[in-house]
Amino acid sequence: MREKGSGTDRFNMAAGTAITLTGAGLWGLNAVVSKYLMARGMDTMWVVNFRMITSGLVLLLAAAVRNPRGMFDIWKKRSSVIRLLIIAIFAFGICQTTYYLSIDYSNAGIASAIQQTAPVYVLIAIIIKEHRLPRSAELITLPLVILGSFLIATHGDPHALAVSPLALLFGLISALTCALYMVLPADLIRAYGTFETVGWGLFLGGCFIAPFCRLWEFPQVWDASLAAGMIFIILPGAAIAFAMYLYGTSIVGPVKGGVYNLFEPVVAVTASAVFLRQSFHITELLGIAAVLLGIAILTVSKNK
What we know:
Layout: H1 2-39, H2 44-66, H3 78-105, H4 108-115, H5 118-130, H6 136-154, H7 165-183, H8 185-192, H9 194-213, H10 224-252, H11 254-260, H12 263-275, H13 282-300
Helix pairs in contact: 1-10, 1-12, 2-3, 2-9, 2-10, 3-4, 3-7, 3-9, 4-6, 4-7, 4-12, 5-7, 5-11, 6-13, 8-9, 8-10, 9-10, 10-11, 12-13
């Protein structure tokens, strides 16, 4: 029986890892598509606001189809409502807005790299909470994946990080609030479901920032590529990505979930090269290798 349980645990962790990495990969693609939409002249704040509200509604519709009686259960308990509102405002509304602004003021790779400091905040908080020193795998993995993201964004030259002050400010705010959605939604997801938690979080977060985004000013010029781009960042790039990443993180835990999220800049750089015709640099390849090695080390390390 113990061997069976052990095998089940390993399967669950492997599935959680795959789900989390897929969600992170979709975010990487979302950053590239979003940068394309901004380059085509679409307003950054309008894009992020429209994306949050519509993708939230898509998830709530899925929740209603799957469990119509349970989609409002999260509103029946005061503590759940308070946590949901905190998640909606900070982990969704502010995090997504500042992340998109960081992309707009720099690019998808740099914005992703800045945001990837979020696992450091999660790990520090957990170490303080548990009154312990970092474990060996954590000491190896986090510096390795952060180094990989640094190489991807800068080509190894710290002076080449051409980040405007606003891009840096928005990126750091995004990283701090990103740490919140690595930790806060897990209990709500287990209690009420992924679609319900993420759907309400995205929708309410979008409603919170709507007065600042002039959502009523709908873009007047559309073509097939813009429409396809908006559909992608609403469904795979937001609704599906959030659901998969947060559900996967609820299985693997916030520290591993945070490290797996560093797969995002790998996908962002690769997709930028393929779709936006950006060439690879040797340090970008080294950075990708470092991130993947860090993920492998944490995955195979013993979970104490």
